Amino acid sequence: MSLGNIVKMGTLLVQMKHNQWKTQDDLESMQEEKLRQLVSYASENVAYYKNLKKNLKDLDDLSNLPLVTKKAIRENADSFLSRRFDKSHLKKLPTSGSTGMPLSVYHHPDESKYGPAFEVRQLAEAGVTPFDVHAWVTADPYNQNILNKLGLFRRHHFLFSNSRQLGQIIF
User: Fold this and answer.
1) Are residues 88 and 48 located together in one domain of the fold?
2) What is the CATH number of the domain that holds 13?
3) 1-27 pLDDT per residue, tens
4) What is the pLDDT of residues 61-93, one digit of tens each?
5) What value does the mean pLDDT of the chain take?
6) Is there a single domain that holds both residue 169 and residue 111?
7) Are residues 135 and 98 in the same domain?
8) Which residues face 46 on adjacent strands?
9) pTM, to two decimals
């Protein structure tokens, strides 16, 4: 994680902290604005969602949308990618497959800033400080980021490759 990413993560943390004090009306207004932006972007740039704009006007309309299945994504993977991104510059990540067969999804590098900010926010709200060490149980090897190298949010990693092994680690 570069210094620029740490600054962006800090900005996201401040926004998250600030948003928790907004009124219900303010939050819904913010959600509807973000939804309008997302719908506009998706209908203009993502083939699968080209007709989304006419079907979705506000938050109440979300329940009218059809569910997207893993099968639909597998069969039409490229139709879910924005035309504004070069697939070769996206990070391909597999899902865990906990609900069936794993699925590979693509992430833009900028997306990786939100996840760590959300994680730090959750840890802080649970009382974990940047100097606490915690266990990280994962199927994927973990590369230390700059925060870990500075001794912050240190993790002991327990790798597992199947559910039986995970049970041995936890129990």
Assistant:
1) yes
2) 3.40.50.12780
3) 566 767 777 788 888 888 889 999 999
4) 777 777 888 888 888 888 999 999 898 888 888
5) 79
6) no
7) no
8) 82
9) 0.62
